[in-house]
């Protein structure tokens, strides 16, 4: 579908399947270089086929804006992105937003609601170590720094003290996400106005250092009310920073890695559910190797253990399977088999996205391993999503 927005041409494409888009050869080359989809020519000059899409949102290439619509309902997507253990019960109003088909707008609206809820009682404060040069002793005199900077000089004094302030990591992350969104060109005016109002609250908070990977602070009793907003802020910052590092036009590109959102959501729900039953659930294990020399690295998404022994392994696959789709792709089964053999586990699970399809078991007698394929339905409301993920946890253990 082609629309006109000011001087820009807007093309709407779907994450699922393939779409035909009118592009110049230079634009098609730049889109392919962004490395989130496959771009191939057609028999019609100037028309290109786009498929194998791994991100959703909007990407700007010259005067063309490509809007990639997710195959997962936006309500489900936003809920998965913001899910935290404290959200055991979710009301309908918690994840309502003003757009039903625009990923940046939906995420912006959800973030604003989460920020408003988190800061309703004022900004979170915390103790921050401050290094300062002064003439009046305050806190601790840093003798080592004094001797290094001013040997033999009694004043000014190098001081270190703890300041109770709003200028903490949690507030810096939220401010950075709000600023990243307000630079988006296609957001509705109402959303932009709300972003501007929200930023005023963070006027005394300093900026995050540029280029630093976003690491969320550990959740504690003190900052738990911030956690849903921080999770959404992380997705906003990753969607915008990824676009910039890919060399696309700043201010118009927002690409969200939905597969990672799905993986994080499933992993977090399983951690919450199975740890209370005495299991250890590790996510993105990176120190496994298939061979004795350590040359073939393995990185399973979810490893479930008990008493120090691996019970099972699971790998999330953000692609549709089930019903009339036949067996899972051979490469996926081989991967799950390799995980199980490496861990010495009897089972490995593949967690696909689909409708209501019963699990299918594939027994591999020569390896003594069974690979089980599951289809997780992401089309329901937040309560149904949680129920589906928890049913999965019961099957895995």
Protein model, in words:
- With 397 residues, this protein is of the alpha+beta class.
- The protein folds into four domains: 2-69; 74-120 and 175-245, no CATH class; 126-165, no CATH class; 260-396, Trna Endonuclease, Chain: A, domain 1 (3-Layer(aba) Sandwich), CATH 3.40.1350.10.
- The chain is built from ten helices and 19 strands.
- The chain has helices at 25-33, 74-82, 103-118, 143-149, 169-182, 189-201, 227-245, 258-275, 330-343, 382-396, and strands at 2-5, 8-14, 19-22, 38-41, 47-51, 56-61, 64-69, 126-134, 140-141, 157-165, 254-256, 280-283, 288-289, 297-298, 302-306, 309-320, 347-353, 360-364, 369-376.
- A six-stranded mixed sheet has the order 12-15-16-17-19-18, sandwiched between helices. Strands 1-2-7-6-11 form a five-stranded mixed sheet.
- Residues 85-94 have low confidence and may be disordered.
Break the fold down into its secondary structure elements and pairings.
Elements: E1 2-5, E2 8-14, E3 19-22, H1 25-33, E4 38-41, E5 47-51, E6 56-61, E7 64-69, H2 74-82, H3 103-118, E8 126-134, E9 140-141, H4 143-149, E10 157-165, H5 169-182, H6 189-201, H7 227-245, E11 254-256, H8 258-275, E12 280-283, E13 288-289, E14 297-298, E15 302-306, E16 309-320, H9 330-343, E17 347-353, E18 360-364, E19 369-376, H10 382-396
Parallel strand pairs: 2-7, 16-17, 17-19
Antiparallel strand pairs: 1-2, 3-5, 4-5, 6-7, 6-11, 8-10, 9-10, 12-15, 13-14, 15-16, 18-19
